[in-house]
Amino acid sequence: NAGVTQTPKFQVLKTGQSMTLQCAQDMNHNSMYWYRQDPGMGLRLIYYSASEGTTDKGEVPNGYNVSRLNKREFSLRLESAAPSQTSVYFCASSELRATNEKLFFGSGTQLSVL
Amino acid sequence: RKEVEQDPGPFNVPEGATVAFNCTYSNSASQSFFWYRQDCRKEPKLLMSVYSSGNEDGRFTAQLNRASQYISLLIRDSKLSDSATYLCVVKAGTGRRALTFGSGTRLQVQP
Fold it and tell me: How many CB atoms lie within 10 A of CB B47?
């Protein structure tokens, strides 16, 4: 019962460095998402992918890129990390239903940018 | 004004107590409502959806008040294991961008 698996769990970067957060789900879901969570704020959507081959910007996309590699995998890339990107990142997946928006989240990545 | 507002707490209650949280939302076109639970340093998990007529799941009761634009979560007979942060989630319209998360209300149940 893996569900949504994201790596790494922790990462420290220096300003300007790049990195990719990996996410994979084994529930055959069409939709996948990347959120960030900051203290005192709700989860904010960075990018999402409604289906394989499509990606769209969310609320806070600046400084990030994504790739929906296949139905299972959705990666998030920081090309040039900035201190403002210090956050906890969550990948999620869902199978859209009309009345039940059930998101399955990965265990999160704690990212610090120095 | 935030789209979804919650009292951050913490709400400190003894075991066995009844506790209620409210969540207000600003978009009157909001269509769907949910409560998620998030344990410390863990991922959020869906606790329950909120239906127009109100709904119950064991010790948990969720209600919606469209006129005043708020939803509530009532927890009866609190357990130590209920200690967590409860996130209010509101969906306005269709599409993947339509979900808005509140910043959460922290509950600490004490022995």
Answer: 20
